[in-house]
C-alpha cells in the first residue's frame, strides 16, 4: 500500500511579508570584499539619540533595520501583494533623514557616521532598485584603521597627517583623505582617524 508523506497535505495558513526601510552592504576598501561580520551599526533620527535602533545582519551579509521611528507602517506589506513587491507607493515617498553610526568591534576600520534619507529602495549605496542599469558602488566603503593588521600580500603606507595652522602651529588632520597613486594604476584611498593617523593598503 502506497502512503503519502504527512507534510504533503499541509497548507500555509498565513503569509507575512516584512520589508525593511534600509539595508546597507559594507565594503572593505583595502581587501575589496564585503564586510559581513563584526560591525555594530545603528540608526536614529537627527537630534534623537534616545531613539537609536540596532541593525541585524541578513543571511546575505547585509545590515538591515526594522522598527525605525516613524517608518513602522512601511514594513508591514499587504499580504495580497505578490512576493517581492514593495509596499511603497509608485511616486516618491516622503524622505525621513536618519543618522547611521558604524563601529567595528574588531578594530579593523575607522568608525564612521553618515546621514541617509529613508526609506531607501534597494541596498544602500549600491544601484537603487528601479534605477537604470549602470555602474554602481559595491557597497558603503569602510577604510582601514591605522593599527589594522593586513595580509602579507598587501603593501601598506602608514602616516601621520597634520594640518598647518600657522608658521609653527599644527594640529592632527582628523578625518583627512589621503590618496596614493602610481603611474598607470588606480588610486588607493585612506581615511585618517581623529588623531590624523592613516593607513592606505
What does this protein structure show overall?
The protein has 201 residues and is mostly beta strands. 0% of the residues lie in helices and 30% in strands. It has no helices and 16 strands. β14 (177-180) and β15 (188-191) form a beta hairpin. The chain is elongated, with a radius of gyration of 22 Å. The model has no long low-confidence stretch (mean pLDDT 84).
Q: Which helices and strands appear, and what pairs or packs with what?
A:
Layout: E1 23-24, E2 26-28, E3 33-35, E4 39-44, E5 53-54, E6 56-57, E7 63-64, E8 96-104, E9 112-118, E10 140-142, E11 157-160, E12 162-164, E13 170-172, E14 177-180, E15 188-191, E16 197-200
Parallel strand pairs: 2-10
Antiparallel strand pairs: 1-7, 2-3, 4-5, 4-8, 6-7, 8-9, 11-16, 12-13, 14-15
